[in-house]
Each structure stands twice: as structure tokens, then as C-alpha cells.
Amino acid sequence: MIRNYLNQTVIWGRAGQPNEYNEVTWANTNIKGRKQSGFKLIRDAQGAEVVSSTMIITETVVSIGDLLDGDEVIVLNPAIDLNGKRLWDEVYLK
Prior knowledge:
Blueprint: E1 8-18, E2 24-43, E3 49-58, E4 67-68, E5 71-80, E6 86-93
Antiparallel strand pairs: 1-2, 1-4, 2-3, 3-6, 4-5, 5-6
């Protein structure tokens, strides 16, 4: 159902192993998603109020701290069906 709307390509960056200078390296992958711009006041994992400028809907399982299109993931809101299965995530970016 939602797959018809996930018609945009988003670059997903996952933290990898540190390099020789102890800097985090990023492994980038193209995933399908739907990007919506607009400011929204949300609460992050620590409970602080932050302003998110972008929300992305995706079926790919991402984590807080990952990068989507170069911006950090600060909040995940999964959509769960009545059987408890995860359908997609609403991902809010910093």
C-alpha cells in the first residue's frame, strides 16, 4: 500500500568502523522513501523539544543517529498494524 508513495531515493548513512584517525566512517546505501519538508516541534529520545525540518517515510529499518540525506535521525515513529508487524517508519531529521 505505502510502496506506491515511496518513489524518492534517499541516501542512508550507517556508522561504520573508525578509521586510523579514530573518526567514524559512514557506509552509504540508497533506499526508497518519501521526503516531506516542513518544521515540526518534536521530542527527541532524551525528552528535549527539538525542531525537525524534514520527515521521511521509509520501509527500511533505520536507527537513531544514522544519517538520511546527510541529516541525523533524531526520532523514529514506527507504524504498527493490528498483528504487531512494523509497516514503515516516520523518521524525523535534525
